Amino acid sequence: MEDVQAIGASIRRARREAGITQGTLADLVGTSSRTIHAIETGTGNPSLGTVAAAANAVGLHLRAADD
């Protein structure tokens, strides 16, 4: 659970640094603001693909824990 929250916090930080809203990020990813909120807070159950798309949209890239 800590990893999920850490990823969400990183996405939130990068989104804010980019100066975009959750709504704008949602539009870029093709999802809802509610889903972006869930990703950023580590709640809900968004798909890994959606989390990766959100990360990529703000310039982050996810990697496997074994890397």
TrEMBL record:
Q: Which residues form the HTH cro/C1-type domain?
A: 11-65
What SUPFAM superfamilies does its record include? lambda repressor-like DNA-binding domains
Q: Classify the source by domain of life.
A: Bacteria
CDD domains given in the database record: HTH_XRE (cd00093)
Q: Which InterPro entries match?
A: Cro/C1-type_HTH, Lambda_DNA-bd_dom_sf
Q: What is this protein called?
A: Helix-turn-helix transcriptional regulator
